[in-house]
User: Fold these one by one.
Assistant:
Number 1:
Amino acid sequence: MKQMIKLYAHPANEHQHQVNVIRWSLAHRAQYPDLKLLHAVPNGGRRDPIEAKHLQDEGLKPGVPDLDLPVPHGRYHGLRIEMKDDTGRTSPEQDWWLGELREQGYFCEVCHGWESAVRVLEWYLGLGEFKL
């Protein structure tokens, strides 16, 4: 019996796309058990100045990718996804983080829309099947 998941039918913003990715991951954990480690990095959003200062003091850094899958596959140490809506662009801070993480051996991708992120996740999780 296939599990039904409630997705945003026509996601209009980055939040809705990212919610669809997480809902998809919850429904596909039997097929891809490593999805249990997929999590969001709450870097964006609007906060009052006091909360923003507390988060910065705790190590919050601008530009860190939105989704993290800390599971090595193939030659990569893990997967990082920066979510965007259909027209979104990365900031200089996001570009810096993606470049630095790639240099450290992570697979990083900017995904425009949730379907793009799902394709990246499926590809990445399939890498473990091709070990030599």
Number 2:
Amino acid sequence: MDQVNDSVVTGFVLLGLAQSLEMQFFLFLFFSLFYMGIILGNLYIVFTVIFDYHFHSPMYVLLANLSIIDLGLSSTTVPRIIFDLFTEYKVISFHSCMTQIFFIHVMGGVEMVLLIVMAYDRYTAICKPLHYLTIMNNKMCMLLVISAWIIGVIHAIFQFVFVINLPFCGPNNVGSFYCDFPRVIKLACMNTYRLEFIVTANSGFISMGTFFFLIMSYIFILITIRQHSSKDLSKAFLTLSAHITVVVLFFAPCMFLYVWPFPTKSLDKFFAIVDFVVTPVLNPVIYTLRNKDMKLAMRRLSSRVINSREVTK
């Protein structure tokens, strides 16, 4: 951290999303409403799983952790985006930029591992139903969740140690509305080809490999079910379609942002907004609308809250 103070650059200039006042107001409403939906939707799932004992099972514990991750990932960028919409000079301090980068990759790394764990959970539940409670017991579930957090932190630290000590003495325009490794590395006053490759391999290729692994695992589950019983295929597909949708929404922007060799500002903005705003608000909708038990539980939780307010009055 001592090297940080030696850098000439003390802050970075972020890219504005809109120039006209009308577009700024539109984006303010868009991001504010979506962020409110992210907070309410994901917290609703978390509280439902915590306070309803029917959902103290591995599948719902993993879902609650996914909601926490989505809320955390969105909170690393969206509040700053809303604040910067009406700010003339969009400057973020060096330490704030590094902090944002670190937590983006912590949350992203944890979600990546968590989606693999959720795929394993569905494989066990669908293909080995008689052994599900033995394999995916509460102890194993908590061990997998803790492992996901540890791997996510290691993933972020592995890249962070290379960036934190880079010398920044020249241009400080990030070229995006948030800080991230690929954009910040290019501003360093040195040859960063090897570091860019490390970031691409660590975030891009791992994201791509994990994405195809998950898709193939879901296809394998569906083929296995079809071989045993074609009647259960449609039911299993409905269950897995929610997981597949979440996987595509999460990994498609990641692969573009870290692997695509010819990024453009318009596509960069689009995929970043999908990753930080759209996906975190869609995940609660996707999982709750496809799950009758979850919808009933959320209604019960809502009625409890309403009844408690009536009692206090």
Number 3:
Amino acid sequence: MKSGFEGHRARGHRAYVVHYTIRNGGIGAASYFAQFEFLDEDGDVLGNTRVTADRLGPGKTKTGSSAPRDAEIEDGTVQDIASVRVTHVERT
């Protein structure tokens, strides 16, 4: 997973963008839900966002990018983000 400040078509020219890849390593189609937490330079959680991959076929991969909205950053601003971590992944 790559992340950092860059231009994003929906969030503007200085967004914190997370590039992600979700791969279905199972034998049947599955849907995935992943949650990211955004951290400041001290490691404190600023907020979170979620991404999904619906009915991903076996062996298939979904790549995408996501950038948090201002409303998703509850304890600071988007400009305070120093890093991101995956906190939850669910396969159904």
